[in-house]
């Protein structure tokens, strides 16, 4: 089974591209969904997080108060490491389980949608890396226009990620999403018909 890493800066259109692959029958493993799953109500990670960051990060309903956790966890390197030590192993385990389940089903290729694929060096573990490319100013514009972020927040989030040049350097294929959204499907269809990850 080939693992196709799909990445791009925040607001680049990764999720849109991922859905186009899904429509063509590719299974999708979504890193953001997994990251949310491991801290869903009732998950063991929550109690560990509460022990480290305070019981009040859990709502009476058992849900995680993400904002409060973020305030306390993203303070410095040490607190961030503590958060990661609790969540990362669980995220990795769950991701591996999903890969294994598809492998057992003899799936030819899966899409792994991972925003921080290159930032975290995971690109090297992929059989193929697709980067969705959009100029940073345009990503910021889309985050403001379609996701309702304020401009400063959008800029900060884009800046917090790996520089575009380094991300692009890790790409085996680049999907250009600078133009209108309907330019995506022809590029995805072409890639699927070429299937370079099978070569
Ligand atoms: P990501 O998953 O990379 O953060 P999304 O796929 O959610 O990005 O896209 C961000 C926003 O930009 C969405 O609202 C999406 O509909 C919109 N979008 C994606 N591609 C284009 C495009 N080519 N032109 C205009 N808007 C786009």
Automatic annotation (TrEMBL):
UniProt superkingdom: Bacteria
Gene Ontology molecular function: any one: dephospho-CoA kinase activity
Catalytic activity from the UniProt record: 3'-dephospho-CoA + ATP = ADP + CoA + H(+)
UniProt keyword annotation of Cytoplasm present: yes
Pathway: Cofactor biosynthesis; coenzyme A biosynthesis; CoA from (R)-pantothenate: step 5/5
Signal peptide boundaries: none
EC number(s) stated in the UniProt entry for this protein: 2.7.1.24
UniProt binding sites for ATP: 11-16
Main location: cytoplasm
Family matches, as PROSITE patterns: DPCK
Sequence similarity: Belongs to the CoaE family.
Role, per record: Catalyzes the phosphorylation of the 3'-hydroxyl group of dephosphocoenzyme A to form coenzyme A.
Matches recorded under HAMAP family: Dephospho_CoA_kinase
Name of the featured protein: Dephospho-CoA kinase
Organism: Corynebacterium casei LMG S-19264
Lineage, opening ranks: Bacteria, Bacillati, Actinomycetota, Actinomycetes, Mycobacteriales
């Amino acid at each position: 089974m080939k693992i196709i890493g799909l990445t791009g800066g925040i607001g680049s259109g990764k999720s849109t591209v991922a859905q186009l692959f899904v429509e063509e029958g590719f299974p999708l493993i979504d890193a953001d969904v997994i990251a949310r799953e491991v801290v869903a109500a009732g998950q063991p990670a929550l109690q560990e997080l509460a022990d480290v960051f305070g019981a009040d990060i859990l709502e009476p309903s058992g849900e995680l108060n993400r904002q409060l956790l973020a305030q306390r966890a993203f303070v410095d390197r040490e607190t961030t490491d503590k958060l990661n030590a609790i969540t990362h192993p669980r995220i990795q385990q769950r991701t591996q389980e999903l890969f294994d389940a598809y492998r057992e089903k003899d799936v030819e290729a899966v899409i792994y949608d991972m925003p921080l694929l290159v930032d975290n060096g995971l690109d090297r573990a992929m059989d193929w890396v697709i980067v969705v490319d959009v100029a940073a100013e345009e990503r910021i514009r889309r985050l403001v226009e379609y996701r309702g972020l304020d401009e400063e927040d959008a800029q900060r989030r884009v800046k917090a990620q790996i520089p575009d040049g380094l991300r692009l350097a890790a790409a085996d294929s680049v999907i250009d999403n600078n133009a209108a959204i309907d330019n995506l499907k022809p590029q995805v269809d072409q890639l699927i018909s070429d299937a370079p990850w099978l070569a």
